[in-house]
């Protein structure tokens, strides 16, 4: 089985509102997204398909065919539209990122001939995206940023071994990074709100539990979590999971970018 993907963009407007709720309740749950006149995004959709390689051509499917199939659905149903008012599905379902990805999966899955739809990833912006594969589960990822210093040094190694293993990262005064933290939750969209999790509550949990502890701090010197723990990005990822899991029950994955080149993921020890 081979997997290949195609990326496209589209623009749409929408509003998150429940008409039977008061203005105050809509504002409390959906924040500025409850604006009755709507707001919009430039979405990026990545479609990944899978299938066997054809012996005669050496390809799974002509990628142009995938492109045409996806564009036909997106242009007809989503692109350039106010979703709540111009798409019957979103007259009944709040057009959250989670609901849009579910709509696209159902619309595209049956149109794949000779190959299968494997995964859809929909970026609403640089800091929020949803994913869906086979089955009912939907994944929502929120990205955060914090800046920290650290020194990579293990008390279990000699000075020479630390220098040999960590190089300049063993600098006694430390060094720093712009970390980007991805927090992924998993579940099915709430039938009323269309959300897997309240984004405001998620933001508050991450801010209080992680960002306030680590942002603009020296991890070795300013935090309790890394006293006696070497603050490698591997350990930062695991520590972050352990901090967030008790307050985010639907937590699925932690992703951490130390740099553009270095990325780490952790799904919790129970998934190992």
Topology:
Blueprint: E1 2-14, H1 23-30, E2 39-51, H2 63-77, E3 81-82, H3 83-86, H4 88-92, H5 97-109, E4 116-125, E5 128-132, E6 138-150, H6 159-166, E7 175-187, H7 199-214, E8 217-218, H8 219-222, H9 233-244, E9 251-257, E10 263-266
Parallel strand pairs: 1-3, 6-8
Antiparallel strand pairs: 1-2, 2-4, 4-5, 5-6, 6-7, 7-9, 9-10
Q: How many separate structural domains?
A: 2
Low-confidence stretches: none
CATH architecture of the largest domain: 2-Layer Sandwich
What is the number of strand segments?
10
SS class? alpha+beta
Can you identify the CATH superfamily of the largest domain?
A: 6-pyruvoyl tetrahydropterin synthase/QueD
End-to-end gap: 24 Å
User: What average pLDDT do the residues reach?
Assistant: 95
Gyration radius (Cα, Å) is 22 Å
Task: Give the percentage of residues in beta strands.
Answer: 25-35%
What fold name stands as the CATH topology of the largest domain? Tetrahydropterin Synthase, Chain A
Broad CATH class of the largest domain = Alpha Beta
H and E order = EHEHEHHHEEEHEHEHHEE
Shape: globular
Q: What fraction, in percent, of the residue positions are helical?
A: 25-40%
Q: Can you tell me about this structure?
A:
It catalyses: 7,8-dihydroneopterin 3'-triphosphate + H2O = 6-carboxy-5,6,7,8-tetrahydropterin + triphosphate + acetaldehyde + 2 H(+). One of its GO terms (biological process) is tetrahydrobiopterin biosynthetic process. It is an enzyme of class 4 (lyase). Helices cover 31% and strands 30% of the residues. It is of the alpha+beta class and 272 residues long. It has two domains: 1-135, 6-pyruvoyl tetrahydropterin synthase/QueD (Tetrahydropterin Synthase, Chain A, 2-Layer Sandwich); 136-272, Tetrahydropterin Synthase, Chain A, CATH 3.30.479.10. The relative contact order is 0.11.
